[in-house]
Specification:
This protein is an alpha/beta fold. The chain contains 11 helices and 8 strands. It has an 8-stranded mixed beta sheet, sandwiched between helices. Strand 1, helix 5 and strand 2 form a beta-alpha-beta unit. Helix 3 packs antiparallel against helix 4 and helix 3 runs parallel beside helix 5.
Length: 329
C-alpha cells in the first residue's frame, strides 16, 4: 500500500477527468456551500495568526493589494491621461472616494488593506464567525477606528446583497470562487454589483496537474501548510473559463435575478465585458487581464508574474484576474 501522503497522486488522472461543466452549471437558490462555510468557520479564530493556517494568505495579501492599486492607476491613465495617473499615484490613499466590496472577506485581511488605501469598504462573508473575527480585529486597530464608518462588515451572501440597490466601484473576491456552488451564478452576482466602468478582481486556482500537486498534494498532505480538505480539485477554474464567461456575459438591469447568467435577454447590455482577444486567447489589457502569482518557498514570499509570462505557464496554478465593466452598459 502507498504511504498516505503519496496515495492522493494515484487519483490524479481520475481528478483530471472530473471537470465541472463551468458554463452549464444549473442555477441554485444559493451559491453558498454549507460544507465549505463550516470548514472555514472552524478555522475563523486563526485568521490573524500570521504563522498559522492562513499564513500563505497573509503573505499573498500585499501582492494582491499592489495588483489592485496597479490596475486602478492604469485605468486612471486610460480614462484621464498621464497627469491624472501621476496625481493619483502621489497619494498614499489611492482608493479615496471609491466604494469597494470584498466578497468572502474571511477575517478581513484584504478589507483592512483596502480601507487603509482610502476606500469605503464593505466586507461580506457567509460565515458569521468570520465576520465576528473581522469586526473584532478592525475595532482594535486605532488607525481603522479613526476612519469612522469607512469599513463595514456584514454576514450575508453575494446573491442577497445584489438584491439591494447599492453598486460598487470595485468588487473583489479573493480565493473564493473555487469554494462556491454554481460559479456561473456567483460570478453573475459579483458582476452585477459593479458600477458601469467599475472593476472586478478575482484570485483563484487553475485546474491543472501542477495545481493539484502544489495546492493539494504538497500544501495539504505533505507540508501541511493548509488543512486537508481545504481545496477540491474539480472546483478549480481555468483562466480560459473566466475569459469565456465574460466574452458572453452582458450586464443585467438591477431588477434581474442574481442567478440569471446574463447571457441572454432583451434587457441585457448589448456589449459583453470582453469583446476582443489576441494570441493565446488572452483579452486586451483595457478590458481584462490574467496574471500568475507564484509562491517562492525559499523566500517565503509570493511573486506577481509578468504579463509576458502569462501564455507560457505562469497561470498554471494561482492567478489573479481583472475585468472591467463597460462604461456603456
Amino acid at each position: 500500500m502507498l504511504p498516505a501522503a503519496i496515495r492522493p497522486t494515484t487519483r490524479l488522472l481520475r481528478f483530471c477527468q472530473n471537470i465541472r461543466c463551468f458554463q452549464s452549471a444549473t442555477a441554485t437558490s444559493s451559491t453558498v456551500n454549507p460544507a465549505e462555510i463550516a470548514h472555514f468557520s472552524r478555522l475563523s479564530s486563526l485568521w490573524w495568526n500570521e504563522q498559522g493556517e492562513f499564513s500563505l494568505l497573509h503573505r499573498m495579501n500585499p501582492v494582491r493589494v499592489r495588483y489592485i492599486r496597479e490596475k486602478l492607476l492604469e485605468a486612471t491613465y486610460e480614462d484621464r491621461g498621464e497627469d491624472a495617473r501621476r496625481e493619483l499615484e502621489s497619494k498614499c490613499a489611492v482608493l479615496t472616494g471609491m466604494d469597494v466590496l470584498d466578497v468572502g472577506c474571511g477575517g478581513g485581511l484584504l478589507s483592512e488593506s483596502l480601507t487603509r488605501l482610502g476606500a469605503r469598504t464593505l466586507g461580506i462573508d457567509a460565515s458569521e464567525s468570520n465576520i465576528g473575527i473581522a469586526s473584532t480585529h478592525a475595532s482594535g486597530d486605532p488607525q481603522l477606528s479613526s476612519l469612522g464608518n469607512s469599513l463595514e462588515y456584514r454576514h450575508t451572501s453575494v446573491e442577497q446583497l445584489v438584491k439591494e440597490p447599492k453598486r460598487f466601484d470595485a468588487v473583489c473576491s479573493m480565493e473564493v470562487v473555487e469554494h462556491v456552488d454554481n460559479p456561473v451564478a456567483f460570478l453573475s452576482a459579483c458582476a452585477q454589483l459593479v458600477k458601469p466602468g467599475g472593476h472586478l478582481f478575482l484570485s483563484t486556482i487553475a485546474r491543472t496537474p501542477l495545481s493539484y500537486f502544489l495546492t493539494i498534494l504538497a500544501a495539504e498532505y505533505v507540508l501541511r501548510k493548509v488543512p486537508v480538505g481545504t481545496h477540491t480539485y474539480s472546483k478549480f477554474i481555468n483562466p480560459s473559463e473566466l475569459i469565456s464567461f465574460f466574452q458572453t456575459y452582458r450586464s443585467l438591469p438591477s431588477s434581474s435575478s442574481p442567478t440569471d447568467s446574463g447571457h441572454i435577454g432583451s434587457d441585457a447590455s448589448p456589449r459583453p465585458w470582453i469583446t476582443r482577444a489576441y494570441a493565446h486567447g488572452l483579452p486586451t489589457r483595457s478590458e481584462a487581464e490574467v496574471r500568475g502569482i507564484v509562491y517562492i518557498p525559499w523566500s517565503g514570499e509570493w511573486k506577481l508574474m509578468s504579463r509576458s509570462s502569462t501564455p507560457w505557464g505562469a497561470v498554471e496554478c494561482n492567478y489573479l484576474f481583472w475585468v472591467r465593466r463597460p462604461l456603456d452598459s
